[in-house]
User: Which sequence fits this backbone?
């Protein structure tokens, strides 16, 4: 039987379902001991603002839309260099054993701590210093997010000018929707209808008037955009665009999933290329420990712990809903990454073959790409040269729509490009706001002199700092280094959250036996993997001074964290919840 | 009967999905509203802690109408040691 998209998507869904109902349920019953009669903070501390109980499907939709963005798409695209199987295995098993456990336990720990964030809980179960380290990690991740996503958007706009026009018009559409929703009385349904109609018109106009600008020009535009967008009131742009993004996400996910299920296209991409494919910074990159630097959010993400513990935990109506929302939400995001891998595995090889002339310019012979080892060495260069950073996914996605529904390939391609760029633009906007906020918090904590503190925490200075470093890194740095730097910081954040959850399970819930180690072991495995990946990154890859500084600081923090973790484990004293 | 239950569950899912998307349309505004409510409460009751705001007798007159705002102000003050939790809704990756 030939391996097809239907088989992979079906197998993925089956694995997720089996592990949800076995491992997930075991976590719920034997580790967390979720009790439907224990009042959640949403009910106990109801305030009508943050603490509001929500229905399970509502909270699931809300939580999933918050954790899903462009990152689960970008990482798997890069990981195809190792073949489709290693990336998919990391996504599936990373999901069920690490990512979903991390999200679920972060959520439930927060529920038991009155909806406090995982950062606050880390200060409680480990030490106060850990909490500050957490904050520094967050700041670095935010800077690297600006760099990594600005480069992604830039690449999409340069390689697909139709998406550039469509994205700019989509921003204008969001402004119109914002005005209709929040400044008129026409209501949410007509506003949404107008927004979705404008979205379609944006795509159509994108084909009519593609906007071709140089990469440098787009960087200047993005720099100005970040500063301006982050200073606008949220209702003007951020809120309506985020709302429309939720529709794009669900539509893209369902349409893509159905297309790959019914199209039953044969997989032509090699399952495995080579253990050390050329991925990070043009160097031979061993799959382990480097993979977490490449696939971040699709497998597990530290940022999910912040969303789960900061927002979702305050709305959980019943402890038994936690598994669906925390564990199930991560699996749904993993499904998005599964779509990415499957679509490239089915269509990527024929797309590369069609780009023979472009590939010849960089000395890549298309005929040799069927050799897995050669593909592992040449894939990243070939992909970046022919399609840009995520173009191979967008085109594969477009082809799956064509095969399944007969929709013109270009429409599906531009839709997928718009999907990624819309999320990446929202990420840039929110990230800059967050970086400003986090910077001020760190300054308040570290700088004691009042006048220096006032200068350093100025909102414009803080905003410019994040934008300038981020865009500067994106413009001058090598993207195959910037992305792994972001991925590593995100995964180390996940390691801190998982260690915090592990300590909570051990010291607070006092779970005994195998289940205790089923939480602590993944936390340690993740810490070891990411730390080794960092060491490899520093030693083997030639980093720019800015990235080098950030990564070295993060590595030092990782060791300090491990020290704090060890001390907390040794304490053997139950910390009251 | 089972098919009926399944049908109802599917309907519930789509209803929840629709509500979830709808709640996405106000989440950032809620963050700003919360901040504005805190500022409003401080403006009204700041005189107790030395802010040059309405005199205490006016604040006292307003007190019965401000129970909810004061409750939220209290929660905000209590949660001020958890800055990340306050901005978690902004995190989207």
Assistant:
């Amino acid at each position: 039987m030939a391996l097809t998209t239907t088989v992979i998507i079906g197998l993925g869904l089956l694995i997720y379902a089996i592990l949800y109902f076995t491992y997930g349920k075991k976590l719920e019953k034997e580790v967390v001991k979720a009790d439907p009669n224990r009042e959640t903070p949403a009910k106990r501390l109801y305030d009508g603002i943050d603490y509001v109980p929500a229905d399970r499907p509502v909270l699931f939709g809300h939580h999933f839309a918050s954790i899903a963005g462009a990152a689960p798409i970008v990482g798997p695209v890069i990981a195809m260099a190792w073949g489709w199987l290693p990336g998919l295995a990391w996504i599936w098993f990373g999901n069920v054993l690490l990512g979903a456990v991390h999200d679920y336990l972060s959520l439930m720990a927060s529920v038991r701590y009155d909806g406090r964030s995982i950062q606050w809980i880390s200060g409680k179960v480990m030490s106060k210093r850990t909490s500050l380290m957490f904050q520094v990690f967050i700041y670095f991740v935010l800077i690297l997010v600006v760099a990594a996503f600005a480069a992604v958007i830039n690449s999409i706009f340069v390689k697909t000018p139709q998406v550039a026009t469509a994205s700019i018009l989509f921003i204008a559409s969001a402004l119109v929707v914002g005005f209709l929703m929040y400044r008129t009385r026409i209501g949410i349904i007509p506003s949404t209808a107008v927004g979705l109609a404008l979205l379609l018109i944006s795509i159509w106009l994108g084909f009519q008037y593609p906007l071709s600008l140089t990469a440098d020009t787009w960087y200047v535009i993005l720099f100005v955009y970040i500063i301006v967008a982050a200073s606008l009131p949220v209702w003007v742009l951020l809120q309506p665009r985020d709302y429309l993004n939720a529709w794009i996400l669900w539509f893209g996910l369902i349409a893509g999933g159905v297309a790959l299920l019914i199209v039953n296209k044969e997989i032509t991409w090699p399952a495995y290329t080579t253990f050390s494919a050329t991925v990070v910074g043009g160097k031979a990159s061993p799959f382990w420990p480097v993979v977490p630097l490449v696939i971040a959010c699709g497998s597990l993400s530290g940022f999910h712990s912040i969303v789960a513990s900061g927002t979702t935990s305050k709305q959980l109506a019943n402890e038994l809903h936690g598994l669906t929302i925390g564990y199930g939400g991560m699996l749904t995001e993993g499904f998005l990454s599964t779509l990415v891998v499957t679509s490239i595995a089915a269509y990527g090889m024929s797309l590369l073959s069609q780009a023979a002339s472009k590939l010849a310019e960089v000395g890549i012979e298309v005929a040799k790409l069927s050799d897995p080892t050669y593909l592992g060495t040449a894939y990243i260069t070939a992909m970046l040269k022919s399609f840009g950073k995520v173009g191979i996914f967008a085109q594969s996605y477009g082809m799956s729509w064509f095969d399944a529904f007969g929709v013109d390939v270009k429409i599906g391609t531009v839709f997928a490009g718009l999907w990624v760029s819309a999320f990446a633009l929202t990420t840039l906007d929110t990230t800059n706001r967050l970086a400003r906020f986090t910077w001020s918090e760190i300054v308040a904590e570290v700088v004691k002199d009042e006048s220096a503190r006032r200068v350093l925490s100025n909102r414009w200075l803080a905003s410019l700092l994040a934008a300038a470093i981020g865009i500067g890194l994106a413009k001058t740095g090598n993207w195959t280094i910037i992305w792994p730097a972001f991925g590593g910081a995100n995964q180390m954040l996940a390691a801190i959250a998982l260690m915090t959850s592990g300590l909570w399970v051990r010291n607070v819930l006092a779970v005994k036996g195998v289940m205790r180690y089923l939480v602590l072991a993944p936390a340690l495995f993740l810490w070891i993997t990411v730390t080794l990946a960092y060491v490899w990154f520093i030693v083997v890859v030639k980093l720019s001074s800015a990235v080098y500084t950030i990564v070295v600081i993060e590595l030092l923090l990782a060791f300090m964290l491990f020290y704090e973790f060890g001390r907390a484990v040794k304490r053997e004293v139950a910390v009251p919840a | 009967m089972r098919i009926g239950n399944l049908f109802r569950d599917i309907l519930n899912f789509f209803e929840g999905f629709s509500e979830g998307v709808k709640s996405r349309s106000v989440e950032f505004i809620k963050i700003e509203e919360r901040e504005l409510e805190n500022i409003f409460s401080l403006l009204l009751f700041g005189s107790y802690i030395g802010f040059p705001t309405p005199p205490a007798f006016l604040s006292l007159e307003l007190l019965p109408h401000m129970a909810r705002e004061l409750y939220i102000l209290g929660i905000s003050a209590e949660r001020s040691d958890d800055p990340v939790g306050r901005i978690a809704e902004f995190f989207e990756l």
Summary: The CA atoms of residues 43 and 53 of chain B lie 6 Å apart. Chain B has one domain: 2-90. Chain B touches chain A at residues 12-13, 15-17, 19-34, 37, 68, 71-72, 75, 79, 81-93 (CB under 8 Å). Residues 2-90 of chain B form one domain.
